[in-house]
Design brief:
Layout: E1 6-9, H1 28-49, E2 59-64, H2 76-96, E3 102-108, H3 122-132, H4 141-152, E4 163-166
Helix pairs in contact: 1-2
């Protein structure tokens, strides 16, 4: 005990009012809160976990969403927060890499969760992804779990700073 093999960051939040209407109406307070909770928390947790993470085999894993790279209806400030989280993954990978600790993220496709219930139009997004993704389906919790096991294990010992998509291939589609 007293050591960690992996730190999983699955923290994100934005006020519900910030996830509807025009992005132009994002408040300063809502913006600051979304970035603090959804992105900065990874940096703070990683800093505190580093003394406990196994050197040469430790792993930090975060969860993100394609809305950090492309615009999705009603995702608004959470998209900006996910973009900040994804860039933080890369900077953290460089910062802790010399210790042998890897930092990666899983960008999961639409998955029915408590968090996704706050995104207006989620069912339409999920339906669109299922019809357009190369695998013609949405993902499952098991799909995400399998990727997490891979990225957290020695099988991914040469992988760091990556955003690993688990979205039935939707991210490769242009339309």
């Amino acid at each position: 005990m007293g050591r960690l093999d992996i730190l999983v960051h699955s923290i994100a939040f934005a006020n519900k009012d910030e996830l509807k209407g025009s992005f132009l109406n994002t408040t300063r307070e809502g913006f600051a809160m979304a970035l603090d909770i959804s992105a900065y928390s990874l940096i703070a947790l990683s800093r505190e976990a580093m003394p406990l993470l196994e050197k040469k085999s430790g792993s930090i894993l975060a969860l993100t969403y394609y809305g950090g790279q492309k615009v999705f209806p009603n995702y608004n400030v959470m998209g900006v927060a996910k973009a900040a989280l994804e860039m933080s993954i890369r900077y953290l990978a460089e910062a802790v890499g010399p210790e042998g600790v890897r930092v990666n993220a899983i960008s999961a496709g639409p998955l029915r969760t408590l968090a996704s219930s706050g995104v207006g139009g989620f069912n339409q997004i999920a339906g669109h992804v299922a019809s357009k993704a190369p695998l013609r389906r949405n993902i499952t919790q098991e799909d995400v779990a399998g990727a997490a096991v891979y990225l957290s294990s020695d099988l991914a010992r040469g992988v760091t700073g990556e955003i690993h998509f688990v979205d039935s291939g939707y991210n490769i589609i242009g339309l």
